């Protein structure tokens, strides 16, 4: 999102980022005795100089209540009101004097909260109860790729949606497009002037909310309102994991947003009527495509609502968009194939090269000029220098300087000493089974066993750095962190190993730490099971900063290999088709355990308590998962992964050949600029043209403004 805001401003788009101003963001992670411990992130404690509260734009948001139907239409009454106070943060474009706005909403209780009703006069309690309303923007839910149907979360989702839509409509009505100088409906031009991109299903309630505004408040006929709504919204899908898809219980929505439930039912009825005319007697198709899931507790499938209520649906990498079309939403894609698109993710080169790696950015500028910062495709010019010995040495030197700098940081902050001439093998991302930090862990144990088996044999020294947060309620992810730390404890204190192998768990991984570790990385680990990582963006950040990638054919790795040539990445393991076939035949972990002695040894060590002598059964849950319900098939890719890692070590011995491969990767990274991504959204979905006009700075006199507004949509 931050990259997209940077690119939209840099491309001169009139775009706003809307969200919630959480008082507490993602928790700070402490590692105590190898375990993750969460601490509140009180990020506003010292104030935030970049934000400006805008109380003049405060808006009411309604909850609960009931619906009254009459001749004039539906009325949502007896609601509880919470106020949404906007805070604006400026988003400057790169060197173009454009400044856009990120507007985040904070929840405030109205001043008569709990005092207006027949409250017998417990004034003190009424004022204390204001916290209940203001809790809406208190804390970010820390779940990653997991849906937890909590009422407070649904309140947060509707809160941001209701405030934002009122804001958008206020702005539309205040513009000349919203004036009623013709007999046409005020809102006829709404989709031509406004585009709303739904970032996953979390703001899906925007669809029934806009319908409620059009039908109940603005008194538009249903069909007109639905046409405008669909043309306004577009939906981006971010995950294919079933446990992550939002499915809200009908009774919860009915309690919190009774009118919205009625509108969703009406949308669904018309949707299913349409399908029934196209596919008569296909009741199973109706069941599959319904917005409402029956059986057990009735639930609303928010992804289905987003697809039906949008004019465009996209995934975030080619392979992911293909899976979205052919597997996850195949019925919908069969109905409206033209609705489904791909928009491969990107990253901003301003933050992820210039800001975090000034040495490399300057070196590139010396060779190809500075224009690449706004047009990253120009990095292809670096291909001319792949054989340039001086350039090769300079690229290697910048990497070495970054490694020394990071090693000093680690020493200062965490009191750990590492060898800056070792290969920095880095695996940083949120901890999740699908990302397979466990597979990396098994490789570490395998390297450790090889060193001990033959201490005299040449071994390419490695510092393995693993970092990331586990969702607080995700038991397996927390066990994985503990296992990595337990293995590190043994490896780092074994005198037979010495400086050949060091393992570090990087505490409290976050953007500011990513900006330090990524420029210092030699090897980027992108090893999710094929078909599970929608795109990934860390993979792109590492590529742009001169790391080589070891990875599966998943997410954007596929396109990185396509751009750089597969021979310039370390690609290994099952492809999506192989995973599908393994599922068909049944995945049997024992097969691999029995066939691969090094895998067996590593697993037996974990099982026997070699890494947890005081608690030999500590990792029973992990072992049990790996053998009996490993959805992500760690053992199936273990052998290919270890063999691929041997190739990595072999190349690392040849510094010049390694650096040439690095240069080829950087030269191929241009596609992964978020500028390219946003240009595609702008042209294919929002129907606006990016502008490279540099607005004159305030201190320069401007030309008299022409009397016409350029035609463009506010995204």
From TrEMBL:
Gene Ontology cellular component list: cytoplasm
UniProt xrefs under Pfam families: Phosphorylase
Gene Ontology molecular functions: glycogen phosphorylase activity; pyridoxal phosphate binding
Reactions accelerated catalytically: [(1->4)-alpha-D-glucosyl](n) + phosphate = [(1->4)-alpha-D-glucosyl](n-1) + alpha-D-glucose 1-phosphate
Name by which UniProt lists this protein: Alpha-1,4 glucan phosphorylase
Quaternary structure (record): Homodimer; enzymatically active. Interacts with PPP1R3B; recruits the phosphatase PP1 which dephosphorylates and inactivates PYGL/glycogen phosphorylase.
One of the GO biological process terms: glycogen catabolic process
Cofactor(s), by name: pyridoxal 5'-phosphate
Gene name in the database record: Pygl
Region Disordered, annotated ranges: 690-715
Similarity field: Belongs to the glycogen phosphorylase family.
């Amino acid at each position: 999102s931050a990259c997209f805001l940077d690119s939209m401003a840099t491309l001169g788009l009139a775009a706003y980022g809307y969200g919630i101003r959480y008082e507490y963001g993602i928790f700070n992670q402490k590692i105590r005795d190898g375990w993750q411990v969460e601490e509140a992130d009180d990020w506003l404690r010292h104030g935030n100089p970049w934000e400006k509260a805008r109380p003049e734009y405060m808006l009411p948001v309604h909850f609960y209540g009931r619906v009254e139907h009459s001749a004039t239409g539906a009325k949502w009454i007896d609601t509880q009101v919470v106020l949404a106070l906007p805070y604006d943060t400026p988003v400057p474009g790169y060197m173009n004097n454009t400044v856009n706005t990120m507007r985040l909403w904070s929840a405030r209780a109205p001043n008569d909260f709990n005092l207006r009703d027949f409250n017998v006069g417990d004034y003190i309690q009424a004022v204390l109860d204001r916290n209940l309303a203001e809790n809406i923007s208190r804390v970010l839910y820390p779940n990653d790729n997991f849906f937890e149907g909590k009422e407070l979360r649904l309140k947060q989702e509707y809160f941001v949606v209701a405030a934002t839509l009122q804001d958008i409509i206020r702005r539309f009505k205040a513009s000349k497009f919203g004036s009623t100088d013709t007999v046409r409906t005020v809102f006829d031009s709404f989709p031509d002037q406004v585009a709303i991109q739904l970032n996953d299903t979390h703001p899906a309630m925007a669809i029934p909310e806009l319908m409620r505004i059009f039908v109940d408040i603005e008194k538009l006929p249903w069909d007109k309102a639905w046409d405008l709504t669909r043309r306004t919204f577009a939906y981006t899908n971010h995950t294919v994991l079933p446990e992550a898809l939002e499915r809200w219980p009908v009774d919860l929505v009915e309690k919190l947003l009774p009118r919205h439930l009625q509108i969703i039912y009406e949308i669904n009825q018309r949707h299913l009527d349409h399908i029934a005319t196209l596919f008569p007697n296909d009741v199973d198709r109706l069941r599959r495509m319904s917005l409402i899931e029956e059986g057990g507790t009735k639930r609303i499938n928010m992804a289905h609502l987003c697809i039906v209520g949008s004019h465009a649906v996209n995934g975030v990498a080619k392979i992911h968009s293909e899976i979205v079309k052919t597997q996850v939403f195949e019925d919908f894609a069969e109905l409206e194939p033209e609705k489904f698109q791909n928009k491969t993710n990107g990253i901003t080169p301003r933050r992820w090269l210039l800001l975090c790696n000034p040495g490399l950015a300057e070196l590139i500028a010396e060779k190809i000029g500075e224009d690449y910062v706004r047009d990253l495709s120009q990095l292809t010019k670096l291909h001319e220098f792949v054989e340039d010995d001086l350039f090769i040495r300079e690229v290697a030197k910048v990497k070495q300087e970054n490694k020394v700098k990071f090693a000093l940081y680690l020493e200062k902050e965490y009191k750990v000493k590492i060898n800056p001439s070792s290969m920095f093998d880095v695996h940083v991302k949120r901890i999740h089974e699908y990302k397979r930090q466990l597979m990396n862990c098994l490789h570490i144990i395998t390297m450790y066993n090889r060193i001990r088996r033959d201490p005299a044999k040449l071994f390419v020294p490695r510092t393995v750095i693993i970092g990331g947060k586990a969702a607080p309620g995700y038991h397996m992810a927390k066990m994985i962190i503990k296992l990595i730390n337990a293995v590190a404890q043994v490896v780092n204190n074994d005198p037979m190993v010495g400086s050949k192998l060091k393992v570090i768990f990087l505490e409290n991984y976050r953007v500011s730490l990513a900006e330090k570790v990524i420029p210092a990385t030699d090897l980027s680990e992108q090893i999710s099971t094929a078909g599970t990582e929608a795109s990934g963006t860390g993979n792109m950040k590492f590529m742009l900063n001169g790391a080589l990638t070891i990875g599966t054919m998943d997410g954007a790795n596929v396109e990185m290999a396509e751009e750089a040539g597969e021979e310039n990445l370390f690609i290994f393991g099952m492809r999506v088709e192989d995973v599908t076939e393994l599922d068909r035949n049944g995945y049997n972990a024992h097969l691999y355990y029995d066939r691969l002695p090094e895998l067996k040894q590593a697993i037996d060590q974990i099982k026997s308590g070699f890494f947890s002598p005081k608690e030999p059964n500590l990792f029973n849950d992990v072992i049990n998962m790996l053998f009996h319900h490993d959805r992500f098939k760690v053992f199936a890719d273990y052998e290919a992964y270890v063999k691929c890692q041997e190739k990595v070590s072999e190349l690392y011995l040849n510094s010049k050949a390694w650096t040439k491969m690095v240069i080829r990767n950087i030269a191929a990274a241009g596609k992964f600029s978020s500028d390219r991504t946003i240009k595609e959204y702008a042209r294919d979905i929002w129907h606006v043209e990016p502008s490279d006009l540099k607005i004159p700075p305030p201190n320069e006199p401007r030309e008299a403004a022409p009397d016409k507004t350029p035609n463009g949509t506010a995204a």
